Structures are given as structure tokens and as C-alpha cells.
């Protein structure tokens, strides 16, 4: 049973760092734009932003290969961007338009892409955990070496179905990485106020599942831990747990009174631990990129995000006939 | 470039709010994430953060202002060295127009047309088979046909099935495809649904549907809704099956009929076989169906034998009711074990000169309402029969359909014969009174025929 505290490697190429920087920045800018569109009334209902947690999905996607699957909760925009789904289709789903990934019928919390092996976007806390184990089950059944990433939060970690799933996943040696995105708050309830367990990943030990805690603000540490987890699964050794310590800067959803934590706590995290700033300063101090190089990336991303926002406004609402489609799959004759 | 800061919508229902307090003043430099103001919404007082960096050029709405409509410009941000534009910006900015759709509401799909062809041709030989064997045979045939089909549940393998439905399957298909699970319905229903998303065709056995209550979130929220929520990209081709309804003397927690519950859910198909032929033909159709299917069996029926056609591939389509007995005086609409009571009642009624027509629905979703309506238009009277409770019942829905589609044909109010509106008691005498009987059906039929 390993309990390594992961430390980032220093010998990383400029190309890799720039890639991480670009992808994390894409998520942040996309989410900021989504927040703006929400404020303008273009996005309705619930909208959960991923700002602050970018290193988690970017690091783990860097550890995956084609064919691997991912499934997560309703805080899902970052996961979709990181696995390569088109920002236009995501934003248009947020605005409930025809050009969205679910034709406007799913919304922020319910989006999918068969092509990118993204299986949702689930609105029921922890439901994605057994679903993720089931996806891993299907790969093991078919005999390939794909791995599924099942992401869930510290809040979901207290749901009973997580432990039912741990038990069966280890019993059947399913190739699933359980990623606990511990952002320290389940809506407004801090981890300390919801459990006396000293750590969440260690609960897996009771089922015989290996795991470790990871610095979720450090994309390189996340990637390195992800590689260990994936190797474990691909070797047929069953599931693996990563408890990724991260932090969400924004509210739980858009309507968050922000009374459960101090402003200083958030500010401290942003100033001292920000995942994007960490890579940015590595790039600059290591002279791997110039300010101008980074500015060019910023500009490019701003363009992509603005384009996605424009698309999400221009794409028409779904045709009324869509109300009645996709309820049942057609039976083959 | 100067940009307007608009009054944000900070909750799904917010239309206006109070600008309680400005946390910045004109001339302040702000960066992304800084709090600009405190805004009181219909839910709470919230901090409103800057999303871009810039300088607060002008504050347009004073703090303490109530009833500020969402999207009203509340401040103007400028860049270093830029002049503040004139007050034209203070006008209310309307929400961007949503592309208009035609005002007509698309019509719901129409009900299937009545199909009265027999399930198998008259010259096909038949074999007496129990419902238990028919279910097992159907699963075995489909597992031979498609290697992605597997069976998962408690005691389905080594124990050979808590009710012996999976007898012999472990020997033929092995532990990879006949999977014993721990007692953990919520978890394995979720795993099976995930496996279906991943392209497999799971059959999930619940030892009884009472235990599926633990798993109902995955059945409804994960299995039934995903096709719609994904815009048709992926769904859950799978079967949830097991005994439903009252057995005998097992008390309140093991004796509930869930037909009306599942029948309510768009995205699910709901099957309630009566005979062994129904069980076999419908189970094969269920396993092949690309949607989640709820297959409600009945423990009391497992040992009953019926004629089942000896054919290579016998299937029964969904949405096709069966007229179990013809008659002109009253229509009895039922399903599952209810057919037993209906047929017994029809027998007794015949002795008294009342010809009852018994409609076995077989599937509740889709429901063959055309067959019900055709029969009611002929008999002008209807009794529905089910073991479940009266409020929100299958019969209640059928009444609604008949009222809307055949009101003028009715010569009497429709009666719903149901189980009594009580949790199932254990005591033998009380249980007998809680359950539906053929005599209840006879009485109801006499009532609607005014005899």
C-alpha cells in the first residue's frame, strides 16, 4: 500500500509545460465567460464553475491514452474541455441551444460525448461512481486495456454507493481510477464538518484498494500520480484511488452566499497556490517562454472562448420537435 | 475599451436584486476575482466578483438601491488612461433576444395501432413450460445469440437463482457472464448501467423488486434519462428483472406492486407478463431492446405451466395486448397475475350469462390503448384489475384514456379493482382481505353491467 506524497519533476520540457498552461488557461477563461453569460441570463438553472481546479483534469488527461473513459459530476465543464470536446458545443449546451453537445436538452450538468469517451455530466451526487466502475467493467469484459476515470468530490465521498462500488471494483479487479477531487467544500460544508476521517483515500484500504494523496494545485504532480494509477489499472491490478487536494475559487454554483469560508482563505489560495500561476512562473523563471509567448497564448484562448460564446448565442434553440425525440432508442428490425 | 458591468443573475430564479454595498469606488483598479459589490438576491446576500481586470470608471447605481433588474448596467470599467464614456450606458440593457421558435407545440407521438394477430401460427407445436423455465430459456437463447448479454444479481450463479430462474446458466455461460454480486443493489444497478453505457447488454436480477427501491435512482436518473440528456448519443440497453408484487405471507416490505411507479417514467419500457409464452417472448424482446426495460415477474406465477410454441426464435413485440377471452358485455383490462383473477371472474360471470372480454396488456409502457378502446367501444363497460394500490394506479391511467377517447361509449363508470389501500399485513386472514380476489372482479363487473 503506497502513500506517496508526490513531488513534481523538474526536468519537464517547455512544450509540455506550455501545453498544460494552455489547457488550464482554456478552462479558466471558458469558465469566466460562462459566469458572465450566466449573469446576463443566457445560461439558466445551475452552473457549477471549475475555476481553481484546472490542474486536476489537465494532469490526469495527460496521463491517459485514446480509448480511456471519463465520467464525472455536474461540475463538468473542465473535464469536457480537457478531453478535447469542442468549446463551442459545450457553451451552446450551457445556453440550451441546438448546437450544444446534447442538442440543448441536457444543460450544464448533463453533457456527453461518445466520440471523446466522456460519459457525463451527472446531476446526482456520487451516481457517477458506480457508473464509472460499470464503464470499466465493460472494458474488462471486452478484454481491452482501457481505463476509466471516475471523478467525484469530497461531498460525494460520503455517499454509500461509493463504498458499494469500491467493494465490487476491487472484488472484480475493475480498471477504474477513483479520483476524489477534494476541493474541501461540499456545497457549504467543509470536510472537517462532514467527517472525522483523517483522509478520504485511505477509506479504500478497508476494501483493499491502493491509493495516494496528490497536490491538486500542481499539474505535474497530478500527472505523475495519474500515470501511477493508470499503470496499476492497465496491469490488471484493479482500481486505484487518487485523492487530489484542490480548491474551488468560485461558489458551489452561481447562487452561493459565500458565508462558509473567509475571503482571505480564497485569496491566499489564489495568490500562493494557483495552478496556472505556478506553471506560468516555471515557464518564465526557467526562460522556457517569454511574456510575449504567453500573451500570444492568452490572446489565442480569448479568441477561442469568445468564438464559443458567440456560437452559443447564435445557435438557434432546439426545434420544438426535439421535445419528443431521444426518449427511446429505435428498435432495430 | 470601456465595458459595462451588468447587474448579474446570481440564482436560477433571480429577476432583480438589491445592490447592498459597493466594495470598490470610482478610480479603483481591480483584478479578476476581486469583489465589486454585495448583492442581495431572493436567496441570500452574495459577493459579486470582477471577471476581468480594469479600472472602475463610473458607478451607475448607488448602493442601497432596491429592485435593480438583472442586466441593468451598474458600473463602467475602463482601461488605464481611458476616458469614461457618457451616461448613455446607464440605460437598461435588455437580455439578448432568444431566437424565436414557432409558437405551436409539437404533438406527442400517436399511440400504436391495434394489432390482433396471434402470437404464433396455429400449426406451430407447443410444449407445456413453466414461467420459470420460459424466463431461463429466453435468457439462455439471447446469451447464445449475443455475447454482450450477461446476467448480474444476488445468488444468480452458484446458488442457481434465489427463485431458480437462472438454473443451469452458470454451467453453460461461466462466471464471466453469470455474475454473483454482493448484497448491494444501489451499487450493482449503477455498475450495470455504466456497463450498458459502455456497450454491453446487462440483465440485472433483483431478488425482488422491493429491493430495487435501493437502486431506483440509477434505474430512473441514470438508465432512463441518459439517452434524452445526451441528445441521443448514448443510452442504457438493459433489463431490470425480478419478482414484483405480493408473494404469500411475507408482510409489508416484501409485497408491493411497482407497476404504476415504473409505468410513469418516460425512457423506461415496462413489461408485465402473465403466461410462460408471454414471459419467453417478451423477455427475448426485452433483451434485444436498446432501452432500459423493467420486467416485472411474479413469484406465484413462476411454477405455473402454459403452452409455449416450439420455435427457433419466438418473440412478442412490445405494445401489443392480448385478448385472453372474448366477450361482449364488459371489458376487463389487466396484466401479470391480474389475468388469473380476471379469467376466473370471467368464468364465473359466464355462468350468470355475462360475457366478459379479458384484455392482457402485457406491456404497460408502451401501452396498447387501442386494444382497450376497441374493446370498450364494443362492450361499453370496463373494469380494471391490478394488485397494486388504488391511488395513482395503472387503472386510474386507463380510466383517463377511456374518458378522453371513448367517453360517449361508456354505459357505466369504470371501476378499478385494486389491492386494498394498506401496507400488506402478515396475519393470514388480514392478508387475504388485503389482496384482490376473483370475487372482487365479479362484483365489479356486475356493478358496471347493472346486474
Mean pLDDT of chain B: 92
Amount of helix of chain B:
25-40%
- Separation, N- and C-terminal Cα atoms of chain B: 87 Å
- What is the fold named in CATH at topology level of chain A? Rossmann fold
CATH-assigned homologous superfamily of chain A = Thiamin diphosphate (ThDP)-binding fold, Pyr/PP domains
What does this structure look like?
The complex is a heterodimer of chains A (333) and B (451). Chain A is of the alpha/beta class. Chain A has one domain (14-289): Rossmann fold (3-Layer(aba) Sandwich). Chain A has helices at 14-39, 54-62, 77-82, 87-94, 128-142, 160-171, 219-234, 263-273, 275-285, 291-314, and strands at residues 69-72, 118-121, 148-153, 176-182, 185-186, 189-190, 210-215, 240-245. In chain A, the strands form 2 sheets. A 6-stranded parallel sheet of chain A has the order 2-1-3-4-8-7, sandwiched between helices. A two-stranded antiparallel sheet of chain A has the order 5-6. In chain A, strand 7, helix 7 and strand 8 form a beta-alpha-beta unit. Mean pLDDT of chain A is 95; it is low at 1-8. By secondary structure, chain B is α/β, with parallel strands linked by helices. Chain B folds into 3 domains: 3-89, Beta Barrel (OB fold (Dihydrolipoamide Acetyltransferase, E2P)), CATH 2.40.50.100; 126-309, Thiamin diphosphate (ThDP)-binding fold, Pyr/PP domains (Rossmann fold, 3-Layer(aba) Sandwich); 322-448, Rossmann fold, CATH 3.40.50. Helix content of chain B is 27%, strand content 23%. Chain B has helices at 131-145, 169-173, 185-197, 216-224, 226-229, 259-263, 276-288, 338-351, 369-379, 394-406, 428-434, 438-448; strands spanning 3-6, 16-22, 29-30, 35-40, 45-49, 54-59, 65-69, 73-78, 126-130, 149-153, 178-180, 201-205, 238-243, 269-271, 292-297, 305-309, 322-325, 330-334, 356-360, 363-365, 382-385, 415-417. In chain B, the strands form 5 sheets. Chain B has a 7-stranded mixed sheet with strand order 11-10-12-13-15-14-20, sandwiched between helices. In chain B, strand 10 (149-153), helix 2 (169-173) and strand 11 (178-180) form a beta-alpha-beta unit. Chain B is elongated. The model of chain B is unreliable at 88-97 (pLDDT under 50). Classes of the chains: A alpha/beta (333), B alpha/beta (451). The interface between A and B is large, with 80 and 75 residues.
